[in-house]
Amino acid sequence: MGGENPMSTKTDTEVIIAGKVFTLSGYESEEYLQRVASYINNKIAEYNKVDSFKRQSLDTQNVLLQLNIADDYFKAKKQISLLEEELQNKEKEMYDLKHELIASQIKLENTEKSVKNLQTEVNENAKKIVRMETELKERKK
Questions:
Q1: How far apart are CA 87 and CA 91, in angstroms?
Q2: Quick check: pTM over 0.85?
Q3: What is the pLDDT of residue 6?
Q4: Ramachandran region of residue 101, left (φ > 0), alpha (ψ -120 to 50) or beta?
Q5: With CB atoms 3.0 to 4.6 Å apart as the test, which of 1, 58, 86, 139 could cross-link to 26 if both were Cys?
Q6: CA dist., res. 32 & res. 28, Å (int)
């Protein structure tokens, strides 16, 4: 069925589609091939419930089934592309948030440095005041 993968071995799987036995050969697992057959059988069962479908010739029935499967395929493809787009947007949002966080951390570090410098300055000034007061007291004596 799918693309050849030299690492895997080919699987031959017997499946039943529309009451007939088919041997499917592919590099996918047996479980996957059975799931594909099951999907086709569900489509056929779904359509066989519709009277207007059952009245059509076999060729028309086959074309209608193929169109319906193609419709499922294109809708799934569109859904995937919407999800990929959403994922890209979320990744960009996350990237932007990380950068904002880094910028905020840098700001915080700079603010902390400023606060330390101001505290040092305040301490120096406090010492100066004490020295000046001491000098004044000495002079008054």
A1: 6
A2: no
A3: 54
A4: alpha
A5: 1
A6: 6
Compute the distance between CA of residue 135 and CA of residue 117 in angstroms, rounded to an integer: 27
Helix (H, G, I), strand (E, B) or coil at 22: strand
Token representation of residue 131: 């020295």
Read off the pLDDT band of 141 (50, 70, 90): confident
18 phi and psi, to 5 degrees?
50, 40
Instruction: Give, in degrees to the nearest 5, the angle at Cα 112 between 106 and 113.
Output: 90
Position 68, amino acid: N
Amino acid code (one letter) for 37: A
Question: Mind listing the pLDDT tens digit for each residue in 66-96?
Answer: 999 999 999 999 999 999 999 999 999 999 9
